[in-house]
Queue: 2 jobs
Job 1
Amino acid sequence: MRKIIKSCGLHCIKIHDLGVSFDDKEVLKDINLHIHCGTITALIGRNGAGKSTLIRAIIGEIPHTGEISFRNTEDGKIRDLKMGYVPQSINIEKNTPLDVYDLITSFKYKSPVVFRSKKIEEEIKEALTEFDAADLIHESIGTLSGGQLQRVLLSMAVMDEPNLLLLDEPVSGIDKNGMDLFYEKISKLRDHHDLAVILVSHDLDYVLKYADNVVLMDKTVLSEGSATKVYNSPEFKEVFGEIYNA
Amino acid sequence: MLKDIFQYEFMKNAFLAILCISPLLGLLGTMVVQKRMAYFSDALGHCALTGVAIGVILSLSDLNIAMVIFGWIFALILNRIRRKKLLSSDTVISVLASAGMAVGLAILSRNGTFSNYSAMLVGDVLSIKRSELLWLFILLLFGTGFFLYFLNSLTAMSIHETLAKSSNIRVNLVEDIFSMLIATVVMLSIRWVGILLISALFILPAAASRNISENMREYTAYTIIFSLFSGILGLVLSYMVNIATGPVIVMIAAVIFFGTYIYGKK
């Protein structure tokens, strides 16, 4: 991502009556959300509440009912939504013969990954620089630490300037220091780019500190709003108990 | 000495055939291994017999066409079942492969005529003719072209399917096309390579290459080098010691695998 744009707050991603069923089992229903650019929305809830399923439905991997639209509130036009995604983990073994260049090229470029291109390499390096990962470009991905891999995946997710960045439990396998760094980076992205972030998180402390909007889920939206509001709701206490008094 | 070997027309033809088949199998093998489809290529090989059987029943003059079409159908059905995720992949593949092979064997062994087809089990590259070489060469060009075109998508899918979908890669379509490509190559080369050895030629060079490669360029290059080296050396050695060519090639590839494994550990 090259341009540094101040987020305008005028774009809006609208999820209307979204539902997902696997065979006959209803996994998500009546999900209604408005997500504005320049904000971080955290999805929280217990395991199996459908947080990852919602992300996969938004991406379009699994079929859903209802609508997802992307609207520019200034002129009211509906535009195509560009999405970036960072998964929970990726399928790699120690000896997977891919370096960071190969990884990003395979997802983002047409030119066959076996023919190295100087131009692509420069572009990838630039994208990695934003997350202090430029020196990893020729590292084999099987040897990267959790935090390094996270930074590489983030660079890839934002390199073609998405309107919406989806992060699925992105902090597993990373130490506290790495977590702080990660959330700092996400906040910077929100502040300096024209994008909205949806983040699946298990860490309520980080959500409290960084999220602008919190969505508590269990098959549907139980409670939504600022972290303080959601953490004080009766639904939250039902799901997580009385641990939080924000 | 090499001059002696290549004074025979059949050795020249076999040499050219290996120059076509082994790099192609190796190249496709890089993605077969990366996408964990080893079982799949094996199953296709086993089902080649069914393809032949169908061709025989329909009394087609060209068995290749029956085999390729059957291979495509088999590959597509298999992908459909796999995507349902009700059974694990290896179970689905084993069930279909055993069933397919049994049907093929049953039909071909009617009236005790199986011996006409048993050569398919181990393959015989020495029996290839000039006219058939041209087809192998076309297969090499075509297969390589397809492979390069889909390489990035295949690599991305092997890393993370959802992530690939979010990058607008048509995962199911690419997977189907790649499976059909594998099926085509298996069916058209099985007579020379043999049912029992075909998956070894897909898997071994790529697996050996993974032991020592750090990126895709090295992975692909070493795989092709190992494929060609074991193919050519295998042909020459098999002539000298008078053993079937296929098994010798596979044994050499296996030695390379263990060599690189030990080297890679260091």
Note: The CA atoms of residues 17 and 132 of chain B lie 9 Å apart.
Job 2
Amino acid sequence: MTLWLSFVAAGVLASLAGALWRVWRGPRRADRMMGAQLVGTGGVAVLMLLAPLGSWAALDVALVLALLAALAAVGFVKATSPDGAGDPEEEEETPRRKADG
Amino acid sequence: MADVATVVLTGIGLFFFLAGTAGLMRFPDTFSRLHALTKADNLGLGFIALGVAFQAATWREVALLALIWALALLAAGTVSQLVARAALGEEETR
């Protein structure tokens, strides 16, 4: 059982590598943010898988990591549009800073 | 019996994770990648959480796993909306 859980954790780490490739190559900022979010979720998955192997305290760490991944994306959205709402209808009045591609 | 369930469920979870990541890497457009990403997040993580829940000794771990998955579901849903809106304004560069 430990062998299988470690194998699945290694598989999830491989998917993390794919996400990092997207972060490196992603033409636009949103792609890089998506890659970062997948890294966060992959981290949560690995922690979950290693919890039964190591100590079950890893679940608390996974909970915090899931929360931080969400807050990182909120930080990204706040950076692109000043009021952070990112509402297309409301964008017309406030001309937004042209985000680089 | 619990081990068999764990093996099967974590295997399905891993499959969805890899499918989501392959989608994230292969899809041509930002928004289709976002689509693939949320699949990996919700389904992959959900099946892995379900699989690991069979290994849990006490009910506390099962509750914690369910909590993490619920948070990941909510976070992935809202975050993909936010990122999509943030990406909507930028010029279309491939």
Note: The helical segments of chain B are 2-26, 30-53, 59-89.
